[in-house]
Amino acid sequence: MPTRNVVLTEQQATLVEKLVKSGRYQNASEVLRDGLRLLQHRELEETAKLEALRGALDEAQTAVTTGDLYDYTPTLFDDIDSQDTQA
Predict the structure, then answer these.
(1) CA distance 64 to 70
(2) Would residue 17 be called left, alpha or beta, if left means φ above 0 and alpha means ψ between -120 and 50 degrees?
(3) In angstroms, rounded to a whole number, what is the distance separating the alpha carbons of residues 83 and 3?
(4) How does pLDDT run across 42-61, given as a tens digit for each residue?
(5) Cβ–Cβ < 8 Å for 31, 40
(6) Residue 31: count of CB within 10 angstroms of its CB
(7) What is the model's pTM?
(8) Residue 58 carries which DSSP code?
(9) Which of 10, 13, 55, 85 is 20 to 30 A from 68, alpha carbon to alpha carbon?
């Protein structure tokens, strides 16, 4: 496994020490690896959200291009909700 040197703030170093002393982690490397796993998970979630937003944007742009639009009225959302309950 490659070795890396990192510089931590006092606050970060204190947190790492606290987590190791708690017994949850055996050493600082375990703390940092777990933090990186969480970061990786968050990045994957953000990527998935961005892809979903891009898909929704593509759908919206297609709807605009094809004229598949609805005029906004104050009751539009109520009308949509009532259509959903009837289906």
Answers:
(1) 10
(2) alpha
(3) 60
(4) 999 999 999 999 999 999 99
(5) no
(6) 19
(7) 0.67
(8) H
(9) 85
